[in-house]
Amino acid sequence: KILKDLKIPFKEIDLSFYNKISKDDYIIPNRNSIFANIACLYGNKIWIVGLRYENHYLMHDKNEQFYNYISLSLSQSMGKKIVVDSPFKHWTKTDILAYCLKNNLKHIIEKTTSCYHPTEKRCGKCSLCIKRYVAGQVINLNEKFSSNPLESDECKKLVKQYKKALKEKDFSHYHEDRIIESLKVLDK
User: Fold this and answer.
1) Percent of the chain with pLDDT over 90
2) Contact at 8 Å (CB) between 88 and 135?
C-alpha cells in the first residue's frame, strides 16, 4: 500500500512456501537470506531492514557480517556484483520515526506496521508492538493499538528481561541503550 501511495514500482512475489515456520517465532531463521536470493533476480542493490542494536547473536541475518557474506555469495552465483546492505543499520526504530515526523511523513508512519498479529495492524501484545510503542512514546508519537501495550504479558516479560540484563550487565541480546530507553517508557 505504501509503495503504491508513493508511486514506487514494485513486484509482488508469492512466498507462501515460507509459511512452514511458526507464526509465534520471534526469530525467523534464514528469512533475509531467502529474500536476498529472490531480490537479486530483480536488481544489483538489495536493502534489508536491519536496525541499530539488532546486531547480536540471535540476529544472524541482520548484521554487517551477513551483508558482506551474502553479497559475496550472490555476486559469485549471479556472475555480477550484488550488494546487500541496510540503509538503517545505524538508526534505531526511534530514529526512523523521528525522521519521518521531522520530514512531514506522519501519513506514511500511520500506514506501516511491525505487528506479528495475522490480522490486526497493531495488536499491542507482541514484542514488535511493544518496541514500536516505546519508539513512539520517546518522540511523543501516540499511535493507537488494539490493546494497551503497557498491560500486555509481553511488556511485563520484556521489562523483567531488561532489568535482569541491566543487573547482570549482559548486553548480548539487548543493547544497554535500548534497555534504558525502553524501561523509561515501560517501567511505570
Assistant:
1) 53
2) no
